[in-house]
Amino acid sequence: MRGLLRQIWNTKGLARWILLVGAIVTVVFVLFALFAPWIAPFDFNQTRDAAGVKFEKLASPGSGHLLGTNDQFYDICSRVVWGARTALEVVLLSVVLSVVIGVPLGLVSGFLGGWVDRVLVFVMDAIYTVPYLLLAIIFAFMLNDRIGSGIVAAALSLVAIYIPQYFRVVRNTTVSAREATYVEAARAIGARPTTIMRKYLFGNVVQSVPVIGTLNAADAVGTLAALGFLGLGIQPNEASEWGYDLSRALDDAQAGVWWPALWPGLAIVLLITGLTLVGEGLNETLNPALRRRRLLPVRFTPREKVDAT
């Protein structure tokens, strides 16, 4: 961790600014997600104030409702803030599960080879050839009948999309690394395959996983919004979801009511942009072929004058 922070600090130029801007945008949404109960003026599915008075339908932005209300009487500001928590919960769960499944499979496949490698590569390539949104829709249909349409179901719908990406990257790196000298030395001293994979290969083949994870997180936000837009994501009474709110606001936008569509759409764009910038910044920081280091000035100690007398 300290080495990663040192690499980020020593990076200069555009890569450093890309990473900094992306991190700032992402941190803002993380704060929204963590402190939503204190930041949002109302609950995500609240339609009445503390006095029991029902909110006005499609109220324009003002003092009572900072960003207005939508056609379901929900406060838009509250829905946007709570939507950050929903998006980050789904993204975090889907990316973690994808890494936990995809990385070990790629490591085992690349190291063992043989029929295990052929079977896993065939399965992953078959999954990878299906368009990712179509695959997410298929899994959403399957999971909605079994476990409902909550956060877990939305995250599992995205896991199937990203497992092949981690598998392919880790497997290709492992195939190259398993013939390295230090692996041959480990075999020569009698190390077991599990020991070689755990101690010698794992740390060397997962260096690109953080970059893939941040880029997948940005893609997961867009895919989650697409599922919600199609009505296959999280329902409004279970959690706030920006894609669903955006789909509900289309008719209002055509009638000239712009605020129900503007703020959820802007939140989607900003979070995707922030996560993408973080991923690109990390890629240029961690990739030796792309990163640029700050050149520290070289100072020589002054030479003492020698008295010739």
UniProtKB/TrEMBL annotation:
Domain annotation ABC transmembrane type-1: ranges: 84-279
Keyword ATP-binding belongs to the record: no
Keywords: Cell membrane, Membrane, Transmembrane, Transmembrane helix, Transport
Main location as per UniProt: membrane
Transmembrane among keywords: yes
Membrane-related topology note: Multi-pass membrane protein
GO biological process: transmembrane transport
Compartments, as annotated in UniProt: Cell membrane
Superkingdom of the organism of origin: Bacteria
Pfam families to which the protein is assigned, alphabetical: BPD_transp_1, OppC_N
GO cellular component: plasma membrane
Annotated TM spans: 14-39, 90-112, 119-141, 147-163, 257-278
Gene3D superfamilies given in the database record: MetI-like
Record-linked PANTHER family: D,D-DIPEPTIDE TRANSPORT SYSTEM PERMEASE PROTEIN DDPC-RELATED (PTHR43386:SF1), OLIGOPEPTIDE TRANSPORT SYSTEM PERMEASE PROTEIN APPC (PTHR43386)
Family: Belongs to the binding-protein-dependent transport system permease family.
Protein name: ABC transporter permease
